Amino acid sequence: MATEKIAAPPYVSFKSFINFMNARREDGHTTTVVDKSLMSNLSGSTANELLQAIKYLRLVKESGEANASYELFVRATDEERGVMMSDLIREAYPYIWSTPGFDLERATSAQMADVFRGQNVNGSTLSRAVAFFLAAAQLAGIKVSPSIKAQPRPKTPSSKTKKDKEAPATQPLPTVRQEDGHPALGMQSFEIPIPINRKVKIHIPAEWSAADWDLFQQMLGAYIAGWKAMMPEQKES
Questions:
Q1: What pTM, to 2 d.p., does this model score?
Q2: Where are the domains of the chain?
Q3: How many CB atoms lie within 10 A of CB 19?
Q4: HSE of 221 in the Cβ direction (CA atoms, 13 Å)?
Q5: Best CA proximity match to 65, nearest among 32, 88, 17
Q6: Is the distance from CB of 148 to CB of 115 less than 8 angstroms?
Q7: Are the beta carbons of 104 and 90 closer than 8 angstroms?
Q8: Residue 202 dihedral angles phi and psi, to the nearest 5°
């Protein structure tokens, strides 16, 4: 007999959750269904996480049909939302108050992590899920042990610091070509006209995705900014 999969606690940014609710309040109306078409300003992954959070808090049904609590929460003032959030998280997170040996007002971060691991979350998702709960509890005015803190998300080897991302690159773009000047196998090239009747030829991999093109566009802009900064200033005659 198959066991029912436990729904994971919300791990979207709590700010994204509140921003969505604020946007609906500013619209002045609520829809009967909540779906990703209302989240067109968000990435696909964030929209999925946000919708999962709204369902977990039982503001909408699994089908997406809005419950009465959704409209009440959207239209509520910030102060009223705090009272409502207290009821919402107590209903959505019953294990926080029912786990033997766990006292929310006196527990440690490790104990909190153990409770959430029992709800089908691990790794970076776990730290994000705890962060969402802590933010919701703060809005609700629920007392939480000062020893419970949201753990920083683990960094991957490929992650870069903000300084690394913002630093303009100054090295020229690499090109791969054969002796006859044509692109090597698996590459493609195109030319960009520049002033004084000249052209720049760029060689890139033949099979690039839309995300690769977006990243290339950002990198090219950074290269141009770097080159421009290194060029001596030309005086107008």
A1: 0.64
A2: 14-140, 162-230
A3: 14
A4: 7
A5: 32
A6: no
A7: no
A8: -120, 135
